Amino acid sequence: MTRCCAGDISMTNYVMGNERYKTAAFFVCNDDEVRENGSFEKAQKVRDFCAENGWVPISMKNDWLTIFGDGVTKKV
User: Fold this and answer.
1) Residues facing residue 15 across a β-bridge
2) Which residues form the domain of 10?
3) What is the tally of structural domains in the chain?
4) pTM of the complete model
5) How far is residue 52 from each of residues 29, 49, 73, measured CA to CA in Å?
6) Inside any domain, residue 52
């Protein structure tokens, strides 16, 4: 996994290590190249990492109806 996610991974491992309460972990996959500055390749690495660790990937492309508010557009 890339260094940019190291803090997220550490926090997720901490939460998932809690045996007293039922836990779940979700990771946002920035895979929407049209509405956001997404990268399919990086998002696939996140999906693979989630699969290896039992975490739930969330796709910006497929799971989000909107990304920005009305009138906000992606920077090019």
Assistant:
1) none
2) 3-63
3) 1
4) 0.72
5) 15, 5, 34
6) yes
Q: Which residues pair with 57 in a beta bridge?
A: 27
Measure the CA dihedral 44/47/53/55, to 10°: 160
Angstrom distance (rounded) from CA 50 to CA 58 = 10
**Residue 37 falls inside a structural domain:** yes
Of 7, 49, 53, 54, nearest to 29 by C-alpha is: 49
Best CA proximity match to 27, nearest among 68, 52, 66, 65 = 52
In-domain check, residue 68:
no
The conformation of residue 4, written as its DSSP 8-state character, comes to G
SS (H, E, C) 21-32: CCCCCEEEECCC
Encode pLDDT of 11-57 as tens digits. 887 878 878 888 888 988 889 988 888 888 989 988 998 999 889 99
